[in-house]
Amino acid sequence: MARTQRYKKIEKKVASKTSNAFFSFFRMIKHAGQHIFKVFDSKLTIMIVPHSQSKVINFQTNVFALALSAVLVFGIVASFFYFDKKVISSSAEISRLTSQNRETQASLDELRDENMNLMQAAKRFQTSLSQSLSLLGITDSSTVSRASISGSDLSSLFNTQNTVTGSVRETEDVKQLTSYLENAVQPVEQIGKMLESQNTLFTEIPSIWPLKNPNAHISQAFGANEHPITGQWYVHKGIDFSTFRSGDPVIATANGQIVTVGFDASYGNYVIIKHKHGIYTRYAHLMSASVAKGQFVSQRDTIGYVGNTGVSTGPHLHYEVYIGSSIVNPIQYINVKPSN
């Protein structure tokens, strides 16, 4: 019982001290607030004394109004500097975007020029493909014509409506070109298959240049020419190829068998190859031959080297083509110029 009374006394004492502490704190806050109010409510008199004899101007205010005015002035000045900085930053950004826009416009103009070049190249491709298909007897009604029906033919590419402008037109052009090329794959594949099936025929007919050097050129054509030594007109029975030097490889223009390896006062060192279908080819003025009579050679095999033997004014190859006993213009059979 005594212990319980002691606990109650302690509780009352603690509660009393806590209550006194709260009251003391609130009184202190109250006094501080009153003090601050008195300070801000303090009266001030501001006098403006002109240098002249004019009347002195004075007005009364208090500390609170003066402090509030100072805060407002500071806020206005700070806002001015802040927005001025923002304006400068925005001007720099606008200038950067303007420059970037000019560069983008220049790139777009360049892209449009390239797109126009692409369309022109595509038109040439369409013409060439149509001619090739016609020559090879491949009908394009199932491929290219179908592209025309679906609006993807290149003819529609160059008749785009005037209402389509800007990047939309370029995009539409590219889409139509893509569609056309996709439809052109099949006839091109047909051409490839036909060439592959005719590969044997091409190797049996003299169809390539007889010199391996890609820089070779025709120095004298077939037919009526002025003789380089006598100056008289005569019929040149072949084509002269030159590289301006001796020693360049001479290659067989088709598969065949070597029937002659010899020397002639006019032709110099020469080689004759017999091909299928009654075709013969002669290679004259050689520095030397690298094949023997009776040897079988394939198209592009080296058979000798450019020289200056026989009646010749400089290093070159004299090349002839015969069908049976009749000499023909070799240019009718030459289609491919070696690349290496």
Features:
340 residues; alpha+beta; ten-stranded antiparallel β-sheet; two-stranded antiparallel ribbon; 6 helices; 14 strands; 47% helix; elongated
Distance between the termini: 123 Å
Kindly state the mean pLDDT as a whole number?
80
Q: N-to-C SSE series?
A: HEEHHHHHEEEEEEEEEEEE
Question: Stretches where pLDDT falls below 50 for ≥5 residues?
Answer: 141-152, 160-164
- List how many beta strands DSSP finds: 14
Please specify the SSE layout and strand pairing.
Blueprint: H1 2-40, E1 43-48, E2 57-62, H2 63-136, H3 144-149, H4 154-157, H5 166-197, H6 199-204, E3 217-220, E4 223-226, E5 233-236, E6 239-242, E7 249-251, E8 256-264, E9 268-274, E10 279-289, E11 296-297, E12 302-306, E13 317-323, E14 326-328
Antiparallel strand pairs: 1-2, 3-6, 4-5, 6-13, 7-12, 8-9, 8-11, 9-10, 10-12, 10-13, 13-14
Helix pairs in contact: 2-5
Characterization of the model:
The chain is α+β, with helices and mostly antiparallel strands and 340 residues long. It has six helices and 14 strands. The chain is elongated, with a radius of gyration of 51 Å. The relative contact order is 0.07.
What's a quick, concise take on this entry?
By secondary structure, this protein is α+β, with helices and mostly antiparallel strands. The chain contains 6 helices and 14 strands.
